[in-house]
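Inputs:
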Amino acid sequence: MTLMALAQRLEETPLGTAIAEGRFAFPVLEGIHLIGLSVAVGLLLLTDLRLMGLFLPQVPVRQVHRQLQPYILGGFAVVIIAGSLLFLSEASTLIVSPPWPFKFFFMLLAGVNALYFELAIARRPEALPETGRLPLSVRGAGLASFVLWALVIVCGRLIPYITHWA
Amino acid sequence: MSFVNLLASIQTSRFAHGIAESNHLLIAFFQIVHVFGFIFLLAPLFLIGLRVYRLALVAQPLEKVLQQGRTLSLIGLSMTLSSGLLMFLSAPLHYYFNWAFDVKMGLLLIAILLYVAQFLWVAVLNAWHPALARWSISISLLSWITVCMAGRAIGFV
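Outputs:
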């Protein structure tokens, strides 16, 4: 089965059809997707700004990081559920849209960056001092995360505007 | 000159034509700025909400969180309003006769008034009666959520 055939089968599922044909299902899901994004990516960008020393510089990084994490993850759960339902309703259109694979590529890179930060950088005892300037590796991870998530959003918004490769 | 005539003259202006007839990626660019603006507007407000509800940054004075959040949130508000205005100017009559847009504008007005109130009074309210501050920030967040939902409906009605 080709990817296109699989996408068409997803669209033809009762749920996919209901979302595509319902008058308000699609915009409501889009709205939920955007609100989830504002919470998840928004709080993540605030954390990135903290890592770069540009937001709440007086608050220890560990405090910002740990306390916002549950809401970031909760927001992402909403984004993923709403995004999956939106995908179900227009899968065959999305898979041929050039920004769509780029969106996932940048999400993958952002995930790798987050894992590297959690597992390698943040575990060093000297990496996250309570006060003062943060090490270059920490600021770099914050900047990389900020740029990558910004690119995810840019690609997401470009999907309806760039529908084909040629 | 009626309001509709005014909008019609804007729509036929060289500026509006310039936007409407330019590359469709210009509107996409406005949309991207609009979404970024909304994220930068809402995320600090949500953070302030978490602080008011004592769910995060409890060790920090609310005034400091408000002060830092306000700058970022105002940048977001400016981005959202300016990009929204440019999108509106590209086809004002089209938007004016869309009921979802009218609803959005009404809700936007309420959301902005509540938004201003948050930054002016939520710290005082929190010190005086924390439950009122929680209600206040919740209503403000809810108003932005309804603005967002009405905004998403514009292209579908």
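Remarks. Helices of chain B lie at 3-11, 14-21, 24-52, 62-90, 92-96, 99-128, 130-153. Residues 3-156 of chain B form one domain.
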